[in-house]
């Protein structure tokens, strides 16, 4: 059977019998002007996203200086189209809200790469930030501060192990300012945050401190037991995860100091010592 791409017919190559008159087009829904575009198998454009200032729904005047039939434009028409292009791009960020979103989401895009975050976290951040802007919380406050606060709230909500300090360092703002904006978001948007699970932070600390898989698994056992007998309530999750890892290192004889683990977890050695004592007593080790 032979398929004719232009007429959409499928027919026998020996007798010419037409089996199908209509074949579904599987290529892109536009004409290609370059080899790359011709090879591109995607049927549509980029998906819509809350993390774009126009949600990915805006249209632009293309860069190809050709008319509908593919003929090149005249020089006078070229300059007219160029002017139209300029005004089209300017008019898209004409509103202050659009300018705000553009600045906020470019900041968010930078943070995504810096903190290695998933698309789900970024979408959640954009959703929280849009709600904050609708409520008028951005006026009089720094845009990066509110973006960082929204990002931390999204990390908490999706149980992604990123601390307030990580986010503050990533966006280069004082931790105190991000915390203030975060409290404001919680209060004004009535957000309900799940309690951070210390187990989520174990893999990250173990990776940074270069601990063995055996130690990591032992620490997870300790934390699960601590959670069962309810000694983990009200404790800093990163501190508790670091203490469980240090306890596992001591039990299995892995040579790591409190300082190494404290630096990996972003907590102080005193915290690790206190949590270590508490865990040891609670688990009767």
Automatic annotation (TrEMBL):
Residues 106-187, 200-281 form the Cyclin-like domain. InterPro entries: Cyclin-like_dom, Cyclin-like_sf, TFIIB, TFIIB_CS, TFIIB_cyclin. One of its GO terms (cellular component) is transcription preinitiation complex. Residues 28-42 have a biased composition (Basic and acidic residues). Residues 26-49 are annotated as: Disordered. Keywords: Initiation factor, Protein biosynthesis, Repeat, Transcription, Transcription regulation. Gene3D superfamilies: 1.10.472.170, Cyclin-like. The keyword Repeat applies. Coiled coil: none annotated. Belongs to the TFIIB family. This is Transcription initiation factor IIB.
